[in-house]
Specification:
Blueprint (H helix, E strand, L loop, with lengths): L2 E5 L3 E6 L3 E2 L1 H11 L9 E5 L5 E2 L1 H16 L4 E4 L3 H9 L8 E2 L2 H20 L1
Parallel strand pairs: 2-4, 3-5, 4-6, 6-7
Antiparallel strand pairs: 1-2
Length: about 120
Amino acid sequence: MEVKTNTKEKFHVITVTGATLTADMAAELIDLLLPYLQNDVKNVILNLKELQSLDVISAEKLVNLQQIFYENNSSFVICEMQKTVENFLDSVNLLEMMNSTRTESEAMDIVQMEEIEREFLNEE
C-alpha cells in the first residue's frame, strides 16, 4: 500500500494513493498510523481523494482506528471522500460514525479546533 505523507505543525496529512482499500491494506494503514500516537504531533488527517472503493471490513477498521486516536486525545479526520465511497459508507451505516469533511482545509480546521479544545480542557 502506498501513501503520501505531509507533516504540518499540528497534524500529518496521509493520502491513500490507491483506488481500492482492502482489509489487508486497511490493516497495513493501521500499522502505519498507530505509531503517530507516540509522536509529539499525534493528529492525523486521512485524505481519501483517490480511493474509489473499500469493503465493510476496511471501513470498520477505519472507524476503530479513529476511535483509538480519540481515546488517546488525538484527532483523526477523514477528508475528500469520493461520492461512491461516501454512499457505500452511508449504506452500511458507518459514515455517521466517522469524523469526515469534504475538503482537506475543513479537516485542518477541525484538527486545530480540537487541539484548542483539548488545551482548554487541560487547563481546567
